[in-house]
Specification:
Length: 140
Amino acid sequence: MPRTAKHLLQIQLSDDERRRLKTLAASRGMTLRQAALAAFAAWEQNLSHPAPPASQPRKTPESKPKNWLQHAAKLDWTKCPEVEILAGKDRRLWVLRGTLSPLSDILQCVEDDHSVEEIADIFQLDPAQLTSVLKFAGLP
């Protein structure tokens, strides 16, 4: 069997970006290497499809109230039927029901002005479930 050449690829990331990537990889049961390869494969697939016309606006949660993320952190999430707690040895983590997608990462993506479609695609979520969670968090 022929040997495959291996090459080193370095990417500079902030501590927050690195932590987020590691969390996403772990939530999918992947190593960081596997997650990076999957991301490159998804990027390659996106590049092969033409982008939507620039006239189509992104669907981002409109009129985000100031400090909405702080407000969302203080909500009683036990009352939202679309989320649940995953309990581990060392901690408890809020995730979207039926997924391993961390609620905090999803809300941070909204704070970073990613569209609902982008977030649903990144975390492989049902857009209706995501919209329901965002409405619970106080976004239109």
